[in-house]
Known about the structure:
The protein has 159 residues and is mostly helical. It contains 7 helices and no strands.
Amino acid sequence: xxxxxxxxxxxxxxxxxxxxxxxxxxxxxxxxxxxxxxxxxxxxxxxxxxxxxxxxxxxxxxxxxxxxxxxxxxxxxxxxxxxxxxxxxxxxxxxxxxxxxxxxxxxxxxxxxxxxxxxxxxxxxxxxxxxxxxxxxxxxxxxxxxxxxxxxxxxxxxx
Length: 159
């Protein structure tokens, strides 16, 4: 009987290994083509960025968006050298001239992509939480195995 309990325990551990593999994604982020080829050739400058009218709060939103898209930067509302370098990397990956400054079209593409990334990240977290909930509750495969082991062990000691 002890061998049965050990075997069931090993099965539970092996079976739950798939659940434990949840974590960060290894898939590369998609590189998107510019939304409009006309704006892709328009080089962004300090002047075009000033025309957008980015307040400190909007600059923080841009920095948060870049971070959501995998281009980590400090979120301080200031476009310093490191933020400019991150913007240039984003521009380069999306086919824009890598100036480190934004124009209105690039700003829209960036904020739209960041919004989509936030939505998909939220959905992924919800799905992961749902999967975790099944393995912790009474139902599901872990609960069924635990119930079976409990009844076997309880039956051994009731005699």
